[in-house]
């Protein structure tokens, strides 16, 4: 693991010439959900000026690709809508390939997921009520209802997740024929100035897996499932010529390690310098290089190539 800023000009030139395609996370790399990270706008412009091809790969399914595109453009990023990938499209595609007779799905997730499934012709099984009488008899009757119609359960980010819907998902998953799909498995999300941390959906997916003794089909990073979609959509031929830029060691660097990509870790999101100094992750997650943020990548590009 090398600090990119410590490389000689010759080594920097070798680094920039070692890849043609960049896959980059969004949250923690370009922005921290609520605001852009200083220098990231300029870094994307610099790298694109070098002729690097970009795809922005996020586990964020709280917003549609169209909304993410509009937000990034408004923040000044040089990005096209076609360059943004979330787990949503491969998730829907996978379900469509299962040829479910009733096409009925129970979703723990945000409205954008539910709308995408409805647009694809799926029926959404109803979620439980937000409030009900605080009695175990009432909870139990709502939680164990299962008429056998649900054919798949999806678990992803859900800002309104409650105990009842988590239990309903577990009830449906007791039937082994019910497909279990997980979106983002992040256990932490960086948010806003100071990188405040939110609980990620990975915690709740782990609860369902332990409760049901089932293993979810994981669509998002670090699963290579998402990469199959990316490779097909963008025609990636030589993985050794691809650089992945991310802020999470398990999700981003793990994804790159699973897929055979070069790795650049930025310390502007989840990962901190102490994580590198006290390594506790799998060897495949080790990045070849790291920087504090994309601002340093921009400054290094200027140093080497000028304006």
Helices and strands, with pairings:
Layout: E1 2-3, H1 9-16, E2 21-24, H2 40-49, E3 53-57, H3 65-74, E4 84-85, H4 88-97, E5 104-108, H5 111-119, E6 123-124, H6 136-143, E7 152-155, H7 163-173, E8 179-182, E9 188-191, E10 196-199, H8 202-212, E11 217-218, H9 224-234, E12 242-246, H10 249-259, E13 262-266, H11 273-277, E14 289-291, H12 294-305
Parallel strand pairs: 1-14, 2-3, 2-12, 3-4, 5-6, 5-7, 7-8, 8-11, 12-13, 13-14
Antiparallel strand pairs: 9-10
User: Do you know the CATH architecture of the largest domain?
Assistant: 3-Layer(aba) Sandwich
H/E topology pattern: EHEHEHEHEHEHEHEEEHEHEHEHEH
Beta content: 15-25%
Structural class: alpha/beta
Distance between the termini: 28 Å
Q: In CATH, what is the class of the largest domain?
A: Alpha Beta
| Helix proportion range | 25-40%
**How many distinct folded domains?**
2
Number of helices: 12
How many E-type strands?
14
Mean pLDDT across the residues is 93
Which fold does the CATH topology of the largest domain refer to?
A: Rossmann fold
Evaluate the radius of gyration: 21 Å
- Tell me about the largest β-sheet: 7 strands, parallel
Binding site for Mg(2+): 25, 27, 247
Protein name: 4-nitrophenylphosphatase
Binding site for substrate: 221
Active site: 25, 27
């Amino acid at each position: 693991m090398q600090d990119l800023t410590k490389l000689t000009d010759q080594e920097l030139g070798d680094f920039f010439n070692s890849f043609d395609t960049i896959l980059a996370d969004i949250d923690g790399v370009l922005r921290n959900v609520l605001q852009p990270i200083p220098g990231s706008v300029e870094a994307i412009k610099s790298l694109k000026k070098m002729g690097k091809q970009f795809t922005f790969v996020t586990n964020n399914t709280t917003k549609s690709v169209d909304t993410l595109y509009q937000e990034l453009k408004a923040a000044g990023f040089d990005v096209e809508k076609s360059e943004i990938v979330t787990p949503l499209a491969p998730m829907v595609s996978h379900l469509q390939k299962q040829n479910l007779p009733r096409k009925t799905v129970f979703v723990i997730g945000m409205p954008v997921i539910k709308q995408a499934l409805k647009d694809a012709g799926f029926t959404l099984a109803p979620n439980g009520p937000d409030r009900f009488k605080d009695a175990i008899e009432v909870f139990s009757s709502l939680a164990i209802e299962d008429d056998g119609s649900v054919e798949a359960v999806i678990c992803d980010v859900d800002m309104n997740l409650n105990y009842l819907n988590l239990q309903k998902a577990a009830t449906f998953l007791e039937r082994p024929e019910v497909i279990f799909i997980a979106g983002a498995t992040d256990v932490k999300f960086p948010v806003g100035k100071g990188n405040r941390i939110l609980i990620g959906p990975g915690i709740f997916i782990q609860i369902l897996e332990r409760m049901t003794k089932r293993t979810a089909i994981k669509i998002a990073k670090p699963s290579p499932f998402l990469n199959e979609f990316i490779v097909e959509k963008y025609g990636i031929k030589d993985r050794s010529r691809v650089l992945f830029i991310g802020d999470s060691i398990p999700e981003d660097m793990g994804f790159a390690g699973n897929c055979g990509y070069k790795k650049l870790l930025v310390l502007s999101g989840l990962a901190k310098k102490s994580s590198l100094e006290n390594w506790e992750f799998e060897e495949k997650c080790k990045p070849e290089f790291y920087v504090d943020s994309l601002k340093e990548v921009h400054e290094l590009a200027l140093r080497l190539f000028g304006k």
